[in-house]
Each structure stands twice: as C-alpha cells, then as structure tokens.
Write a structure and sequence with these properties.
Number of strands: 15
Distance between the termini: 12 Å
Number of domains: 1
Strand content: 15-25%
Order of helices and strands: EEEHEHEHEHEHEEEHEEEHEEH
CATH superfamily: Aldolase class I
Helix content: 25-40%
Structural class: alpha/beta
Shape: globular
CATH topology: TIM Barrel
Number of helices: 8
Largest sheet: 8 strands, parallel, barrel
C-alpha cells in the first residue's frame, strides 16, 4: 500500500519513497555528545544511502523515578538542537510534553513528537497539530492498532495532514512489551506513513525498579521484520556506549552496529517495495 507523502526538510517519507531513518540518543546528555552522535549517525546513514533525521529529547518528563536524569531542559536543549540543525545539516525530531512548550519547540524542530503516554490527551494532541509542523504520534502501549485512527482524526481536524504514525510495542503483562507485526499493516491502512520504533519496542517498562530495562539484542531482528512487512521509516535510539547512557541504555543500539543494520534494512526495503 502506498501512503500519503510527508516531507521532513528535504526528505520525503511515505508515498512509495525509500525507507528513512530517525535515530539518535534517547536524551541530550551534553552539547558535545549530541553533536558527536548527530555527525557520526549522519555520515553512517549517508554511506548506507538512507535518508536521516536526528532525534533526541531535551527533557524526558516520563522517567520511572524522580531521581533519573531528564535532560538539559527546554531552553538549553533547544539551543543544542538548533546547533545540530545548523552545523550538521540534518532535520530534527524531538518530543513535547506540555502545551506551553509547543511554541518554542516548533521554531527549531522539523518534527514534533507526541509521546505514547500522551497520545490520547485531546487538548495536547490538538495543540501539537496546530503547530503546523510534521507530527509524529507514538501509539500508546495501551492502544490497539486501529485505535490510533481516533488520534489521527484529532490531528487532521486541525487541518494538519503532515502526520507520521509510530508503532512502539504494546503492553504484554507486567514490565513487558511485544511487537505485533499485524499492527503495521493495520496502521498503514489509515493512509499515512508508518514508523516502526525498533528500540522502544524492546523496553521492559519499569523492569529495573527505578528505571526501565530492555533487551537490545533483538533490535536487528525486529527492524528487519518490520521493514519486510512494510514501513516508511525506522526509529531507533542509538548510543556510542549504551551501558553508560543516561537514559534507555538497555534498549539502545550500539553506534558501531548502526551502519551495518542500515545496509541490511535498505536492501529489504528495496525488495519489499519492488
């Protein structure tokens, strides 16, 4: 199925276009770290021939524990993202957690992301959609794939048709998620580009007590499976040293494995799209 085409910077997602990749550290750990990751990821994606969008959060407002690192905050975080956009020359995706932040974030980010836990908050969803930017909505872990259609209608009602729908796993008992590949087909039938989040899908929410766990060894398998089924982009959290990442290390892809995986999924995408 060919979906609607959504443009992010000079990258076209959906509409039969080649697979795109959205990747970066879970959270901005420092300016130098963010710039380093963005540069290395961009170059790896260029070598693999896959269009690239940088992602990272200025504030992880939904951490398991109040003691966990959240990021540099709105003001400093947006300055760092602006530097990356200018110096590295890549489109930017970041998540928003409060209506009051939308105005500032839309001035920097090409894509505003609605976190999974907030995807049913009507006033928030509407405010993000009215930014006029591309909206990437994460399907809540508690939603059936067809239920994202109601969220999509809220966004479209604002007149914004630049929408990406992201599958990031569904709750499967306590402290666990599972990926149902049927959901990718069901969500794409709504007519908008679908993104598969190959790293958050492997989270073990709250699995470490005060933090979420994860099982990164399955990232490649899920990414390959999703592309074989048919998606328009992949979303991955990538870190040079996941064991020492300040957020989501257990389910982050090691940077050294990024380019190799891109080469594999690019070929699968070419086969899948004929």
């Amino acid at each position: 199925m060919v979906t609607k085409k959504v443009k992010v910077g000079n990258i076209e997602i959906g509409g039969g276009n080649p697979l795109a990749i959205i990747a970066g550290p879970c959270v901005i750990e420092s300016r130098d770290s963010a710039l380093k990751h963005a540069t290395l990821l961009k170059h790896a994606a260029e070598r693999a021939g896959v269009p690239y969008i940088f992602k990272s959060s200025y504030d992880k407002a939904n951490r398991s524990s109040g003691d966990s690192y959240r990021g540099p905050g709105l003001e400093m975080g947006l300055k760092i993202l602006a530097d990356i956009k200018k110096q590295v020359g890549v489109p930017i995706l970041t998540d928003v957690h409060e209506i009051e932040q939308v105005g500032a974030v839309k001035e920097i980010a090409d894509v505003l992301q609605i976190p999974a836990f907030l995807c049913r908050q009507t006033d928030f969803v509407t405010a993000v959609a009215r930014s006029g930017r591309v909206v990437n909505v994460k399907k809540g872990q508690f939603l059936a794939p067809w239920d994202i259609g109601n969220v999509l209608k809220k966004i479209l009602a604002t007149g914004n048709e630049q929408v990406l729908l992201t599958e990031r796993g569904v709750s499967f008992g306590y402290n666990n998620l599972i990926s149902d590949m049927r959901s990718l087909v069901i969500m794409r039938a709504l007519g908008y580009p679908v993104v598969f989040d190959a790293t958050h899908s492997l989270q073990l929410p709250g699995g470490l007590g005060k933090a979420s766990g994860g099982d990164r060894k399955y990232i490649g398998a899920l990414a390959r499976a999703a592309v074989a089924v048919g998606v328009d982009a992949l979303f991955m959290e990538v870190h040079e040293d996941p064991d020492h990442a300040l957020s989501d290390g257990p389910n982050s892809l090691p940077l050294r494995e990024f380019e190799g995986l891109l080469r594999v999924v690019k070929r699968l995408d070419e086969i899948q799209k004929g």
